[in-house]
Amino acid sequence: MLERTPRSRSARRPTLALIAESAGVSVATVSKVVNGRDDVAPDTRALVEELLRRHDYAPPSARRSPQAGGAVQFLVHGELRAYATQVIDGVLSGAEEAGVSVSVGRLGEDLADPATARPWARELAALGRLGVIVVTGELSAAHVDALDRAGLPLVVIDPLNLPRREVTSVGSTNFTGGMTATQHLLQLGHRDVVYVGGPGTSSCNRAREHGFRAAMEAAGLPVPPEAALDTEEFAYEPGRRAAERLLEREHPPTAVVAGCDAIALGVMEAARVRGLRVPDDLSVVGFDDTELAEVATPPLTTVHQPLREMGRVALRTVMRVVAGEQLDSHHVELATELVVRATTAPPPGPAGARRGPRAVDARRTVPVAPAAPAAPSAPVAAVAQLPPAGPTAVAPLSRTAPLPHVPRA
Predict the structure, then answer these.
(1) d(CA 211, CA 197)
(2) CA distance 290 to 287
(3) Cys bridge to 143: 117, 169, 222, 263, which one at CB 3.0-4.6 A?
(4) Buried b (16+ CB within 10 A) or exposed e, 287-304
(5) Segment (H or E) for 299
(6) Strands 193-196, 255-258: parallel, antiparallel or unpaired by DSSP?
(7) Taking a C-beta distance cutoff of 8 angstroms, is the pair 311, 72 a contact?
């Protein structure tokens, strides 16, 4: 397949003059066709309309200015989870500041087909969209090209792929975050640490895994292939299934770095079902710092991503391009930081003594209220731990307390 040589945005966007030259008619004739005038010969009209479709021409009326009350299209991949909810909150804040609206939609599976690119971009332009923001989604090069030709700026947040280097992206310091999470566990004395991430093709997942590997290698520890697992998506259930396999090993890990908070909660549930306690028997670190991390039981140690600020920056970036500004960089990374809560502790002692699994009824699950008020924008869940045999300083539960339930992601 031939790749088109990147050109400037202005060179890609078709004009009436270009259409007129291709059709061998005047600009006035093309304008009549665009505006639906009936004083054009049928054959000429058919030729001009075909060229307009071929060049993905969008009339100026479809490329509305911010002052005309246009909207930015926000597209999320998959289910609307806590991560995307916080990003949307930031996008909406940015939209209020810019005085524009936001239209929220789902990134359909049909966009994997390059044949849908031009009709999709033409539809967005016809709706008067100012630009497009895509969260953790995957677009083909054909779709990126079609948006460019339609004059619609594109910004991606934590993309699963970047089909072209010049695609503008907003993310966080994923490599540093993965490295910091691992260093925290190493400082506690862990040596058997495993990374459980999201899709192997995801650029942010690869960066987090590379940070994990860098920290392990800097400590002089081996990183065999089985020390890093990919899952099909950043979600609770894939994390739980991956942890089940990990904990069945002859020498299971003492700590897990998870690619997101939802995966971390899945790891914690798999440990609970096996009768293991977090952090006494297994330490867990998440990534994102969504509301789920605050209300989990025990509260989740995690890497904070400034999700709301990422959404706000993405909206501002779209509006800067709409206003004709030149961007200093196509890739923006916001700083991450480790938030230490209650799911990490030193590993079991040298005698061995990791406590053996206790009989646990996995069906003993009921909803529980969070320990602290959570923002009303997204539902949250807590991950249950059985009470320890003796007193503990980490959020003890009453021996009579029922186990809370974690809805499947």
Answers:
(1) 12
(2) 8
(3) 117
(4) bbbbbbbbbbbbbbbbbb
(5) none
(6) parallel
(7) no
Closest CA to 264 of 204, 325, 342: 342
Question: HSE-up of 232 (CA within 13 Å, CB side)?
Answer: 6
Output the CA–CA distances (angstroms, integers) from residue 122 to 56, 198, 223, 250, 318, in the order listed: 7, 33, 48, 56, 18
Q: Tens-of-pLDDT digits for all 409 residues of the chain?
A: 223 333 334 344 567 778 888 889 887 788 778 777 778 888 888 898 888 878 767 665 444 455 455 799 999 987 888 999 999 999 999 999 888 999 999 887 766 677 888 889 989 998 889 999 999 777 888 889 899 888 899 999 988 777 777 899 999 999 999 999 999 999 999 999 999 999 998 989 999 999 999 999 999 999 999 999 999 999 999 999 999 999 999 999 999 999 999 999 999 999 999 999 999 999 999 999 999 999 999 999 999 999 999 999 999 999 999 888 888 888 999 999 999 999 999 998 763 344 444 333 332 333 333 334 333 433 333 333 433 433 333 333 333 334 344 444 4
Q: Give the CA dihedral 33, 38, 40, 46, nearest 10 degrees.
A: 60
Burial class (CB in 10 A: 0-12, 13-18, 19+), 44: middle
Name, in order, each residue with C-beta under 8 angstroms of 167's C-beta and a sequence gap of 6 or more.
Answer: 144, 154, 156, 159, 330
pTM comes to: 0.71
Q: Position of tokens 């969070």?
A: 370
CB atoms within 10 A of CB 143: 25
Cβ atoms of 272 and 383 closer than 8 Å: yes
